[in-house]
Amino acid sequence: MRRTAVSLSSLALVSGKVYFSETFGDGWENRWTASTWKDSEGTAGKFVASAGKWFANEAEDTGIQTSEDSKFFGLSAGFDSFSNEGKNLIIQYQAKYENNIECGGGYVKVGPKMADAAAFGDPTPYNVMFGPDMCGHTKRTHLIVNYKGKNVLKKADLPYKQEGEGTTHLYRLLLKPDNTARVEIDGEKIYEGSLKEDWELLAPKEILDPEDKKPSDWVDSSMMDDPEDKKPDSWVEEKRIVDSAAKKPDDWDDEEDGEWEAPTIDNPEFKGEWSVKRISNPDYKGVWEAKKIANPEYVDDDQVYKFADFGFIGFDLWQVKGGTIFDNIIITDDVAEADAFAKKWAALSEVEKAKKTEEDEKKAEEAKAAMPPASDASADADDDDDTEED
């Protein structure tokens, strides 16, 4: 359902707008367009409506679920184009990995209006990609920002919350006009910082001077051989020596057996290979680096947060193991509207955690019941002893 919210105060009129919202109620298939990008390869998966195995109210908690394994999933929805210039922008949604996905994503892409939604896929330009992603030991919450046609990954990974417990997590991204971003997962702030500093969106302000050369007398070796250290005259480096005690056998025939040579043995006085002692180099000047100069290609931009057009949101995912459920998507500039959706997650999360605890306890009881009683185990041990005695 799409809606626009306006809140009034006694002092001023404050506009808060919901650009897009979706709870996957009746008719969601008509609001979303399935991608045909992978149809010709036979690897396109299908989204189905599902509340999963844990829910508070099945109708209210029904979202869309990736229903197959080892498939690509493409689905998008359009909305009226808008720009986030001069305003906060919140992108928020729920994701639940009911299965261990093994390798795959659970992120959303939000970008400019598409000419052909059915062609939506990996090549489709987007403004922001946000959400969980994992493959093998690599686990992170993606936050990729497009700047001047280039998709730029955050320098440091954000924490990953889909740890296989099978409960729903709430993802919120806030882009602000001061060129900062804030990420919250389950209502907890996991990142807040500068788009300029934490992404390589702009060219560096300074670069190493290509004309600066290391002086020929620059000493960059911190250690040197001790000129006072000399190998002792008594130092023995021969590892093997001729066995002086060996005698040529009486039956040795030089003509038939060749010239006899005494065998070698380990030298009992061998001290190993000698090496000169290393000392600190008094002429060491440190690691040389060219001086820095202003980068002629650097251009500042006070609006790296801004996008001229947002017009679609979509899922473009590969998953080895399906079963991921998405729900309660909202794109807005109004925190109160996003918080209202967050309350839905909080209510569902409480039920899920209770049911998970109940299921874990049941499994523990079943595992305990499957174990043989201690008395039987003792009797089995006695039988074993009797068999050994027999």
Automatic annotation (TrEMBL):
Source organism (scientific name): Polarella glacialis
- List the disulfide bonds in this chain: 103-135
> Where is the organism placed in the taxonomic lineage, from the top?
Eukaryota, Sar, Alveolata, Dinophyceae, Suessiales
Q: Which domain of life is it from?
A: Eukaryota
Q: Where in the cell is it found?
A: Endoplasmic reticulum lumen
**Segments for region (Disordered):** 206-266, 352-390
- UniProt cross-references to PROSITE patterns, sorted A to Z: CALRETICULIN_2
* Molecular-function annotations in GO: calcium ion binding; carbohydrate binding; unfolded protein binding
Compositionally biased region (Low complexity)? 369-378
Here the segments flagged for biased composition (Acidic residues) are 251-260, 379-390
Keyword line = Calcium, Chaperone, Disulfide bond, Endoplasmic reticulum, Lectin, Metal-binding, Repeat, Signal, Zinc
Q: Would you kindly state one Gene Ontology biological process term found in this protein's UniProt entry?
A: protein folding
Q: What family is reported?
A: Belongs to the calreticulin family.
- UniProt KW Ion transport keyword: no
Composition skew (Basic and acidic residues), residue ranges: 206-217, 228-250, 352-368
Write down the SUPFAM superfamilies for this protein, in alphabetical order.
Answer: Concanavalin A-like lectins/glucanases (SSF49899), P-domain of calnexin/calreticulin (SSF63887)
UniProt-recorded name of the protein: Calreticulin
Q: Which GO terms describe its cellular component?
A: endoplasmic reticulum lumen; endoplasmic reticulum membrane
Q: Name one Pfam family in it.
A: Calreticulin
Give the residue range of the signal peptide. 1-16
What residues does an alpha-D-glucoside bind to? 107, 109, 126, 133, 316
